[in-house]
User: What shape does this take?
Amino acid sequence: MRTIAVLILNSAVLLDLGTLRAQDLATRTMPPDFSGVYARVNRTPVRQGQAATPPVAGQQQGQVQQLAPPRRSNADGTGGRAPDAPPLTPEYMSKWQAVSKSRMSGSYEHDYTAHCLPPGMPGMMSMPYGMEVVQSKDKIIFFSEMNDALRRVYLDGRKPSQKVLEDPTFAGYSTGHWEGDTLVIDTVAILHTKSFIEGSGEGFSPHSDAMTVRERIRFIEPTLLEDRITVTDPKALTKPWETVKTYRKLLPGSGRDEVRESACPEGLSEVQGIGKIKSLDDVK
Assistant: This one.
């Protein structure tokens, strides 16, 4: 009887160990949960392989910077193009120069976010006013406080249909999958007539209808999210352009862990007297 009892006890222990191992394996193979509210850590584009923007005096590395909202949605090009700006082909450089000339004259005809339009992709991921991420098994939603911009990333294996590809939108159509702890996202069908590659206040490089965006998003610290972005456009770019965005997760109870509504009704531009909007297709 004692032998039988020992065997039963050993079997129970082995079952418990097996259950713990299975639970541990399941935990280790589950993707991280990105859900939460985030603030941008750096707003300057960072090339792949470079460090994020260094902290200002008295600020620890990775700490959220208190950034002043941009006065206009993009720079006007007075100082020329930044050395790490997207490398444009001659045709699209001409477009950039025409837009720059217009903006330096004081016109808002190509300042699309000032006309209450969404910032588009990948510019939306600059998130100058913060973002909220809502994650489920089959979908991740990114919500930007700026102009209430929204994008959905489908994780259920679906592919964009021909109808989707023929109907581009500001956010484009995003599908993703997990590679370990990294979310890999591909975005296509991005509207090119009224949006730019860079984010608000960072530039206004035009792109074509052939532009695609790949992102690799992961936690590099427990509350620090990194988005490595690669933009490919065979018509507008001489080579793929890369940039890195980082975001600090705002903890509950901090008083800042909420994304507020940022209503920008169409027609506000007329009230502000900034004139009519103009499509990039009209720029030569």
Notes: Strands lie at 36-40, 131-135, 139-144, 150-154, 173-179, 182-188, 212-221, 224-232, 241-249. Residues 36-49+88-252 form a domain with the Lipocalin fold (CATH 2.40.128.20). The longest strand covers residues 212-221.
